[in-house]
Amino acid sequence: QVNVTAFAIVRPQVQAGRVKLLAVTNTTRASVVPDVPTVIEAGFPQLALDGLVGFFGPPSMPEKVREAIAADVRAAMDATVEERLDATGQLPHFGGPAEFAAEIAEQRARLAAAAKDLGIVPTQ
């Protein structure tokens, strides 16, 4: 049996020895589990998918406001916050709105192509 989920969810089971981590889907190893390879290193590059977490607003939000929110978030991210994120297997990366939008678009395109290859169609 295989499950793909956030490390924070399975961490207690991993620590108790009930679950074995085979790989992480991030493109880089998670420092909280440094001995666990990435799916790329394990020979499955098509399964690589970095988790994206961020703030969303309406499409009409002015770019100046987006940039100001991003700057505020970056300013709030100190070593303590980064340590807490790292402990859950997250890889903090505080890019700007354009970078975040590009990453979302890239992942959306990859997942849409995979769904098409598998014959999965969106529900109406």
Architecture blueprint of SSEs:
Layout: H1 7-15, H2 63-76, H3 79-87, H4 97-118
Short description:
With 124 residues, the chain is mainly α.
Helix and strand run: HHHH
Round the mean pLDDT to the nearest integer and report it.
91
Beta-strand percent range: under 5%
Number of helices: 4
CA gyration radius, whole angstroms: 17 Å
Structural class: mainly alpha
CA-CA gap between termini: 31 Å
User: What is the quaternary state of this protein?
Assistant: single chain
> Main beta sheet: strand number and arrangement?
none
Q: Name the shape in a single word.
A: flat
Would you identify the regions where 5 or more consecutive residues have pLDDT less than 50?
none
Number of strands: 0
Helix content bin: 40-55%
General description of the model:
The protein has 124 residues and is mainly alpha-helical. The chain is 44% helix and 0% strand. The protein contains four helices and no strands. It starts with 6 loop residues before the first helix and ends in a 6-residue tail after the last helix. The model has no long low-confidence stretch (mean pLDDT 91).
Notable features of this structure?
124 residues, mainly alpha, 4 helices, 44% helix, flat
